[in-house]
Predict the structure.
Amino acid sequence: MSIYLDNSATTRPAPSVVRAVEEALTVQYGNPSSAHRLGVAARRLLDESRTRVALLLGVSPEEIVFTSGATEANNLAILGVARAARALPLSSYDDRERKEREGKAAGAESRPHLITTAVEHPSVLEPFRRLEDEGWEVTYVAVDRQGQLDLAALSRALKPETVLLSTMWVNNETGVVHPLQGIREVLIQFEKTQGRRPLWHVDAVQALGKLPVSPRELGIDLLSLSGHKMHGPKGVGALYVRRTVRLQPLVWGGGQERGLRSGTENLPGIAGLGVACQEARERLAADPEASYLRRLRSLLWDGIRESIPGARLHGPGPDTGAVAPHILNVGFPGTRGEVLVRYLSERGVHVATGSACHSRRPEPSHVLGAMGLRPDEIQASLRFSLSWENTEAEIREAVAILREVVAEVRSLTGWKGRDD
Amino acid sequence: MERQGRLSLDGVTILIRYGEIALKGKNRPQFEGRLQQAVERALTRAGVPLGPGRVRRAYGRLVVELAPGYEPGSPTLGRAIRALSRVFGVVSFSPAVRLPLDLEDPIPAIARAALALLKSTVPGASGSDTAALAAARTFKVEARRPFKQFPLNSLEINQQVGAALLRQGIGMRVDVHQPDVVVGVEVRQEGIYVSTEEIPGPGGLPVGVSGRAVLLLSGGIDSPVAGWMSMRRGVELIGLHFHSYPFTSEEARRKAEDLGRVLARYGDGSFVLRVCPFTELQKAIQRYVPEELRITIMRRMMFRIAERIAAAEGALAIVTGENVGQVASQTLESLGVIEAVTRLPVLRPLAMFDKMETVARAREIGTFDISVRPYEDCCTIFTPVHPKTRPRLEEAEAAERAMEQEVDVEALLSAAVAGTDRQELEPLPE
C-alpha cells in the first residue's frame, strides 16, 4: 500500500505526460532549429506545447519562455529584471556609488530597490540575497501568525526606485494563498501617486492547476511555473514574460526562446509540460473551485482534529479561501516531524516536514519561523499535500495510521496533552 | 650512444622501511608477510602496475618493483606514493631507480638516475631546465656497498658520483653536513639502487597482526578516529553501528557506512560493518528506565550486543571513541558502570585526547566531513535533559532489574543480535 500525500514536493507524472515525453524522444527527436522535416515536426510540437501552457495562463504563446524548471524561471525573472535595469546607462546605482566615494550624503532614495516576502521559496530568496551582495537594497515583507502577507507593510515598502516586487501565489509549506488582488490594488494606488510602479513577479508553482491563474487580469508581469508539481516531468518549467518586459538572460548562446534562454530546447520535457498544462486546464474547467481537493483536505483536517489531541493547524482555517485546496500544515506537539515522516513511510503513507528542500537540512523552516512558531513547534509539524489522484478512502486510511503513529511516538516522549 | 640522454635503468622501484615489526623476534616472518600483502594490495587497489618482481622481502626491507616503462615523476609513481603513505607498518619509503651491476661505466649512469629523480621531486624542475634545482639546494651522496665485489668502495662512489653530478651543471652545491637532498646509492647483488628522497609512512603495525576487535561506530567525529588509531596498531576492525530507524534516518546509517568506507582505505581493501537494529531496545529503555539513567543503560545494552558480535566474529576487544570527561556520560564513573557488562578489554584510544586533537586527526584521515553531516545518530527524542553524570553500578543494575519486570530484555538483545546486518564495504573513492 502506498498513499502519496507529498504532491507539493513532486507529483506522479500523468500517463499521458509519459506518452508525450516518450514520443518526443522516439519520434519527434529532431532539433526544432533544423530545416528538415524532423526539425519542422519538432518545431511544431514545441509551438503546440507553448500554446498549451499559454492557454492555461490565458496569455499569448510568445510570452512563454521554457526553462529547466521553476528555480531557473525565478532566477531569470529576478536577476533578469535587476540586471536589465542596471544595464541602463548612468544607472542610479553607479551614481550612488560615486556619491558615496566622494563622501557626500548618499541619497538613500536613489539606491535601486527590490521587494519580496519573508516566506518565499529558496529559489526566490537566494537570487535576492545575491543581488544584496551586489549592492541592491531588498525589503523582505513580513507575514502574520497565519502566514498572511502584511499589505500595509508592503505598501510602506514601495519606493519610487523600487524596480521589482516578487511574491509567491501559494506558499509551498502552509498553502497560504497570498492576496494577489490586494497586492494589485496596492500597486495601482502607488502608481496613481508616483506615476510608475515596479515590475511584479509571481512564483505560481503551487497555484498552477489548483487555482485559476490569470496574470493579465491581475497585471502580473512575470510568472514562474514548474512541470513536475503538476503531473509533468522534472527538469522543465516556464516563465511568463509580459510582452514589453526587458530581461537580461542568464544563459547565452544560440538565441533560442527569444534569446532569453539559449540552448537546444528540452523538447521531451516541454512536450510533457504542455500535456500537463492541458490536463490541468481541462480539470479546472470541470471543477473551477478545485472542490474535489478541498473536500479531501477538509476530510483530512477533520479526521486529524477529531482523532489526534493537540493537533494544531498552521495557517488560516481551511474554509477561508485564503488557503490553497491541496496543502495542509499541522503541528503534532510531543512528536518530531522527521520521525513521523519515517514512521508513516514505513506504513505506506508518504508526507513531508516543511518543504522537501528543507527536510534534508537541519535548520527549521523559515516559513513557519516567519509565522512566529517556536523551533520545537516547527520540528513537530507535518505538511500534507494532495492531488487529484488521492481518494477519500486513502485519506481515511492515512488518518487512522497517523493517529496510531502519533500515539506511539508520544508514548515515548511522555506527552501528556499539556498545551505548552 | 643510442642510450644517450635516456636512463639505462633496470627499473623503477620503491624501497620500503619498516622499523617496529623488524624487532618482533619470532613473529617477524608473519608480520613481514602481512606488510608485504598489505603493500601489494594497496598498490594494486591504487592501480599501480607492478613488475614481475612485485613486492619482495630483502635485507630487512620491502622492494616494490614497478612495471617496466615507468620513469621517475610519472603519475603512477605519485599514486603509489599516496597509497603507501597510508599502509600501516610502513615507516618510510624511497622511490629508487635500479641500475644493472654490470654497467661498463656506472658512475655517469648513477648520476643521470639521481638527476632524473631530483627533477621529478623538485617542483618546477623539468626537462633541461635546471634553474629550479639550483635555487638554494645542496646535496651530498651517501653510498653503501653490501656487495663487496663492486670495484669502487663507498667513499669512492660518494666522491665520483658527487663530482659527476656537479659536472652536469645542475647548479647544486655539496654540503656534507646539512644537505637539502641526500642522494642514496646502495650497491647490492641484484643492482644499484639510487634514491633522492625518503617519504615518511604512517608507522604502526600492519593491519591484522594484532588480532580483531569490534569498533562501536556511531557516525560522530570520535569513533572513526578511534578506529583508525586501532588499525594503526595492527587491529583488524569489525564496525558495529546501532540503527534506531525510524527515529534515526537512513542518512545516519549511510554516514556510518561512508565512515567505514574511509577506514577501508587503510585496511585490507574492505571494511566489515555490522548494523544492529536497536529501535525496540531503545523504546524499551525509554519506557521502563528512569530518564537520568537511560544513557547509561543504553550504553550497557550496546556493550552487551558488541560482546556477542565479537564472539561471532572472533574479535578479542571492544574499541570505542569514548573520552574521559568529554560529555556527561563519559565520566570515569560512567565508563566503569558501562564496561562492567563485558569481560572483553574495552580499548579507548581517544580517552585522553582533547577534542581539538581528535578533530585534527579526523580531518587528516578524511572522516571529519562525513562525521559532521547533519544527521543525528541518536534521535533527540531519546536524549535526556539531565543524564546522571556519576551513576553507581547498583543503581544501573537495579534499573535493569526493574526493566526486566516489564519486558523480556534477553529476548530484545537476542533479536537485536540476530537482526544485525553484515556488509563488506569497499573503500570510498577519492
About this structure: The longest strand of chain B covers residues 50-58. The interface with chain A takes residues 245-247, 249, 251, 283, 286-287, 374, 379-382 of chain B (CB under 8 Å). Residues 248 and 378 of chain B are 6 Å apart (CA to CA). The two ends of chain B are 44 Å apart (CA to CA).
